[in-house]
Design a protein that fits this description.
Layout lengths: L12 H9 L1 E2 L16 E2 L7 H17 L3 H15 L7 H28 L5 E5 L9 H6 L3 E3 L4 H5 L10 E5 L1 H7 L12 E7 L5 E7 L21
Parallel strand pairs: 1-2
Antiparallel strand pairs: 3-4, 3-5, 6-7
Helix pairs in contact: 1-2, 1-4, 2-3, 3-4
């Protein structure tokens, strides 16, 4: 069974609004914008004109607004590529899924965080949930499954899912009564964060070495919805 992003059964207002607020930004590669910068900018790696980025933004927005599937989005993808005479790396299936999956997953995560903040007085914990049934599960993500920590624990600043490309982990908000009902317990402390070095290629072709938490893909060690430093927020 291959895990995948499915359409929303109920329109997720917070996710819809999050995506709609984004500003279109043309880029050459995915490293041109980094981590929390994606909370304010919509971009598709290699889409270097305003018109092309705008069309992709509208297509993803429609997918979230209307609860469309990846198959629906691919019709828009094909139309946009043809209209703009656009080239892209990789296969059609892979490229369209990267665009759809990453934007839907991060929009949902940002919207979910807004909901979590509204109810954290009565539901003060988060439980990490690793999606079962994936063809190639990440060992670290599977190990984090069931971890319960306070909503405001700093661990979530770098490990709030999604934690990588095609990661479909999520969190659930938890109350004290949930802990009693299901026999869960709050961890005494967050798992130790081990930093590892990874290399990423930048738009000029140079290689940049960065430190990331083990188990988190480069570019994902932030919480979707978090504002970049330039906006004066954590």
């Amino acid at each position: 069974m291959q895990a995948k992003v499915v359409p929303f059964s109920v329109a997720p207002k917070e996710a819809i609004d999050f995506l709609r607020r984004k500003v279109d930004v043309p880029t050459a590669t995915w490293t041109d914008l980094w981590q929390a910068e994606h909370s304010v900018a919509f971009t598709v790696a290699g889409a270097q004109t305003d018109a092309l980025v705008k069309d992709f933004h509208e297509a993803v927005q429609r997918a979230i607004d209307d609860g469309l599937t990846i198959e629906d989005f691919r019709k828009d993808f094909d139309r946009i590529v043809e209209n703009h005479g656009s080239d892209y790396n990789g296969s059609r299936g892979w490229r369209s899924r990267v665009i759809f999956d990453t934007n839907v997953s991060t929009a949902y995560a940002a919207g979910r965080w807004e909901q979590i903040q509204r109810v954290k007085r009565t539901r003060p914990y988060l439980r990490y949930v690793h999606l079962e049934g994936q063809a190639h599960p990440r060992p670290q993500h599977a190990a984090w499954h069931g971890l319960v920590l306070p909503v405001d624990d700093p661990w979530w600043d770098t490990h709030y899912p999604p934690n990588g490309w095609f990661c479909h982990c999520t969190v659930m908000s938890v109350s004290d009564s949930d802990l009693s009902r299901y026999g869960w317990s709050v961890a005494d402390q967050a798992p130790q964060t081990i930093m590892v070095q990874r290399q990423v290629r930048q738009s000029d072709g140079s290689i940049r070495t960065i430190d990331v938490p083990d188990g988190v893909d480069p570019g994902f060690a932030y919480r979707p919805g978090e504002m970049p430093d330039a906006f004066g927020e954590d």
